[in-house]
UniProtKB/TrEMBL annotation:
This is Antibiotic biosynthesis monooxygenase. Residues 22-97 form the ABM domain. It comes from Streptomyces levis. InterPro entries: ABM_dom, ABM_predict, Dimeric_a/b-barrel. The keyword Oxidoreductase applies.
Amino acid sequence: MTRAARGTRNGMSTTEVRRGEPVTTVLTWRVRPGREREFEEWTHGISRCARRFPGNEGVSWLTVEDGHRYHAVLRWSDRHRLAAWLESEERARWHRRIEDIATEVGSERQSTSGMESWFSLPGTTVQAPPRWKMVLTTFLGAYPFTLLVQWLVTPHTTGWPLPLRAAVFPLVLLPVLTYLVMPRLSRLLRLWLYPRDGR
């Protein structure tokens, strides 16, 4: 597979993203004071629209700081399908609906692939933590669920063919880690993962 060239097409960073790898993109929006309720209603509609697009693997919204800054975390199966959504007329129509309500902070748009997407901080340009911290955090997230799978699931699959038994573990563990455990664990350990003094 070839690596994508460094670029900012449509404001999306595609630095070193492999063809066919899942991509997580964070979009940051600044909402005008007093228009938060309208913006939140809009997020429901555009999220439903995005989920219907091929390759979409989830849309999450976060708000931090003073409540006027919102972050959309988009997960896509690959950068080409993500680009198709970003360039789509459907998305453009949704954006036109909030031209006087909110503005995307284009300078803070970022995309990551691989393990780093579990540790990205929405709306920032902070680098991913050191690999040893990512490995330790992933272990803390994966270990309890590994025990549960071994205890609750594995005993019931002893008669299955080996390829099928081997598939059970990643099919159960990876979605749980990606969508439930790691986003929460990385927020819980945020001060340790991203110390202010950079240690």
